[in-house]
Amino acid sequence: MTTEAATRRMPGAPCWVSLLAHGLTATQEFYGALFGWEYRPGPQHFGPYARAYLDGREVAGLGGLPPDRRLPVAWTTYLASDDADTTAEQIRSCGGTVGVGPLDADDAGRMAIGSDPQGAIFGIWQGRSMTGTAVTGVPGTPVWNELVTRETSTVGAFYEHVFGYESEAVVSADFDYLTLYLKGRPVAGIHGVGNALPRDRGPHWLTYFAVSDTDAAARRVAELGGHVLRPPRDSAHGRLATVADSEGAAFRIIQQS
């Protein structure tokens, strides 16, 4: 196992991303055309579910929502855990909630869905036969996960207590950002955006996917029936854009520098 892969398995590190959509076939086609993903069936506990593969290695999960559940469609970031039940108790004791589980997903692992004190939803994954995303850092794979919330201080303490992160703040009068570290390695971020937080979404985790050309990928998103929410722009980590798929699930694409 590479050092990078080992980091993703550390308790608290983002290790998987999953999306539940109303139209699973159309959603699979969207991401297949955008990222080159192929699909194989996964655990069917909550309905149809497939794992997305890139060059034979699993990168993400896509599932179908029941027809009568008109839930918001959003990517869910899963954080690794050595013991999902213990982590669920820690979430509750630190002011969060656990809405689903913990429960077994066949022999793949044990999972739970929780939310932090501000309401941002995230998953917990205790991997067994499936430990999480098998490849990252290349186009079509998740490369970063970031909590978008109102302010970092209160909710940052929650994640530090539950998952043992060390945090480092960006020193800026107008930029509220915490980078979360495990054993000295940056694994995720918390971005406090104040009143710029989307009212229709509230606090949420956001996944960044690598692309080879952000401008071309943003155009492709629109061609496939998605939307460009924030056009391509340069950042300290590469050229990025905020986009949404054909059902409105938001994510970021980044051409890493």
Automatic annotation (TrEMBL):
InterPro entries: Anthracycline_SecMetBiosynth (IPR052164), Glyas_Bleomycin-R_OHBP_Dase (IPR029068), Glyoxalase_6 (IPR041581), VOC_core (IPR037523)
Domain of life according to the entry: Bacteria
One Pfam family recorded for the sequence: Glyoxalase_6
Annotated ranges, domain VOC: 13-127, 141-256
Signal peptide coordinates: none
Record-given protein name: VOC family protein
Species, as recorded: Streptomyces kasugaensis
